[in-house]
Specification:
single chain, about 375 residues, alpha/beta, four-stranded antiparallel β-sheet, 18 strands
Length: about 375
Amino acid sequence: MQSHSNFKTDLNDIERIIWSHESKVGPIIVVFAGIHGNELAGVHACENISEEISGMEENLQGSLYLISGNQKAIKKGVRYLDRDLNRIWNDVTDQESKEGQSDVKEWEEAVGILQVLNTIIEEKKNLGREIYFIDLHTTSAESCAFILFNDTLENRKSASLFPVPQILGIEETIHGTLLSFINDLGYPAIGFEAGSHTDPLSVRRIEAFLWLFLHFNQLLKLEQQKYHEYESTLRGTPDALNKYYEITCHYFVNEARDFTMKKGYQNFDPIQKGELLAYDSKEPVYAPTSGLIFMPLYQSKGNDGFFILKGRSPIWLEISVIFRDSIINRYLHLLPGVEKLDETSFVVDLKVARFFVKNIFHLLGYRVIKKDEHTLICYKR
């Protein structure tokens, strides 16, 4: 594969569908790039791959769609114009939520993406072929590559094929993402974070990830040399390699312009409880717990100041597979403080159920959302 180390500069003519290939056999893979307009590495990688793969179409055993995200923000090189396009998907099909939002440019972008998404699903859903979704991103901090996903078994299977850290349960702390929207439609979807926004290595990592994803899903077969080359491109630091992590802390920022992260933090750097991490409206922000810093905010837009991670044992994940559909699910409402909402969700009163609540529901395959200080809502994934 040709190496593309420099960013292209002219993205004014970016199309919604950057490139596509239709096939009557094999899986369908849908890739989103540039959902945040300042994260251009995914757009450039998709353009690079489309140039090369165009000469291989006769050999592709599946369909592939490369789709651009926030086109208006991409042209300006900013994260978003009015609202974060990756935080509004809880409301994108709710007409009441869209009332009074007609001047919000991201609604128009979401409608354009949704039209493409719905067309692909409607045409393909009854063909008996697998449909996979990928969302490409980069971070404002220096970082190795990693994968984010809602913790479903299908998402785990896709993510586990890559030699990068795996971050579970992002949907419990960041709401309204495109990945969660697609997962709630019933399709597997994972996010690939390639590194920092402007690092040329981020482009190469995304290209390597996409070539490997096509290989793993048998759209094409890589030569052994290329396979090892792409794997090597993805590998991170030895202490953050191919491990599972979950988020234990999310520091929300009301106004990014008033938030200043201390310089020098990279993803997966260890931090200690009480360590000074940032200033918010000139007030110091200390780490509430020890762990690994994750996605520290070094840009002027965004509401996620930082996250803190802890490791999750692969053994725990293996055990959870056994319990996902076990008979225990039928009797959760009998536990103290647990009330059944419907067939797939429960509300938990933390004043009654105090110990290991999240661990138990995670083990059984539930998404756990904090409604307020004393209440959790648990949804079956």
